[in-house]
Amino acid sequence: MSHKNFETEAVRTQLERSQFQEHTTPMYITSSFVFEDAEDMRASFSEEKERNIYSRFSNPNTTEFVEKVVKMEGAEDGYAFATGMAAIYSTFAALLSSGDHIVSARSVFGSTHTLFTKYFPKWGIETSYFDINKPEEIEQFIQPNSKILYAESPTNPGVDIIDLELLGTIAKKHNLLLIIDNCFATPYIQQPIKFGADLVVHSATKLMDGQGRVLGGVVVGSSDLVREIYLFSRNTGPAMSPFNAWILSKSLETLAVRVDKHCENALKIAEFLENHPKVNTVKYPFLKSHPQYEIAKKQMKLGGNIIAIDIKGGIEAGRKFLNAIKMCSLSANLGDTRTIVTHPASTTHSKLTSEEQLSAGIFPGLVRISVGLEHVNDVIQDLNQALNN
Ligand SMILES: *Cc1c(COP(=O)(O)O)cnc(C)c1O
Q: Whose CA is nearest to atom 2 of ligand 1?
């Protein structure tokens, strides 16, 4: 396999052309594939032949999408899912047994946290949480039955950074599988496998699609582990639809240029907000004021598109800020062409007690901004008028 540059692999990784010599990969909207004869069918089912059988197992469009992500992350193999959560759930379910233990960062995506706390204990799988800002404490949570070390970086919604190289070292020393949710960075910015991750999971719904259209998920990593996840998924059915795979494969062709622009806009907006009198603090990985700035610079090519700010005046100020926004969207998604603002304390996390909110890194005035691709001056103008209101 040739190793071209990231952008070239993203654009030029493509299925073999059909007899029609199409330039762009067509959609293979088919649930199954036909066999020549009984022998062809036998050999296909016994995996003597590598070919498509049924779209729950594989489909040309999902194969193309997965192949791109595999190359981008520097992985060996992968499998695509209907959503990011399907990827995360299936990865854990395929690799863990009753009695196993997970060591996870406390600040992980909400539904991932729910999996760990509400569902996995039903099947005898327990999780211990470490504070992402106290990586020196991770080893004290490792038990003889620990199997997986799990984290996201940057985190949601606090935009904290954890040293992936350190996680790789700890995982290796204790014989744990290191699994990283790389959704916020994308493989264009950060490749966790370089730092020792065994598997990388993504919600393709976010920056990979980048246009707020389809849901998707993917896991990539070593062939042996992906094989386990594939066999589990082939039988349990969380597969990505070929339609979504076609969309997402096209989206990846523009990932690099989109993410470049997202990050350029985000840095300008973060710098603007840092000097705004109504803002206490701004957290953005590529601002020198970020507590893990040095680590961010070491492991990330750019700072990403998510900014966390603490507005003066706490929960009431946060609510007023949302109501004063004119152009930006109030929405649950992120990584879209459109800038999205959220105020977790009064919305997504309002049911938590204030102690629970704080332990998840959510202070009352926290506003998360997912910077989009509008002209940066128009976004700044909207945020500025809403802050001053
Ligand atoms: C959105 C998200 C997920 C879940 O992905 P879905 O596609 O919504 O299922 C997982 N991890 C992170 C970090 C996310 O932002």
A: 203
Q: Is the pTM higher than 0.90?
A: yes
Nearest residue CA, atom 5 of ligand 1? 84
> What CA–CA distance (Å, rounded) separates 161 from 97?
30
* Per-residue DSSP letter, 107: S
Give bridge partners of residue 79 from the DSSP assignment.
219
Closest CA to 255 of 194, 182, 193: 182
Q: Which atom of ligand 1 is nearest to the CA of 86?
A: 9
CATH code, domain carrying 293: 3.90.1150.10
pLDDT in single tens digits along all 389 residues of the chain: 457 899 999 999 999 999 999 999 999 999 999 999 999 999 999 999 989 999 999 999 999 999 999 999 999 999 999 999 999 999 999 999 999 999 999 989 989 999 999 999 999 999 999 999 999 999 999 999 999 999 999 998 889 999 999 999 999 999 999 999 999 999 999 999 999 999 999 999 999 999 999 999 999 999 999 999 999 999 999 999 999 999 999 999 999 999 999 999 999 999 999 999 999 999 999 999 999 999 999 999 999 999 999 999 999 999 999 999 999 999 988 999 999 999 988 887 787 788 878 877 788 999 999 999 999 999 999 999 999 98
281 plus 244 within the same structural domain: no
Instruction: Give the total number of structural domains in the chain.
Output: 2
Phi-psi label, residue 280: left if phi above 0, alpha if psi -120 to 50, beta otherwise: alpha
Same domain, 355 and 243: no
What are the C-alpha distances in Å from 339 to residues 185, 233, 247, 310? 17, 34, 21, 18
Ligand 1 site, residue 84, Cβ cutoff 6 A: yes
- CATH number of the domain enclosing 204: 3.40.640.10
Does any ligand 1 atom lie closer than 6 A to the CB of residue 109? yes
178, 160 in Cβ contact below 8 A?
no
- What's the CA-to-centroid distance between 23 and ligand 1, angstroms? 32
237 and 90 share one domain: yes
Task: Say if ligand 1 is within 6 A of residue 181 CB.
Answer: yes
The alpha carbon of 109 and the centre of ligand 1 are apart by a number of angstroms equal to: 7
Q: Which atom number of ligand 1 is nearest to the Cα of residue 215?
A: 7
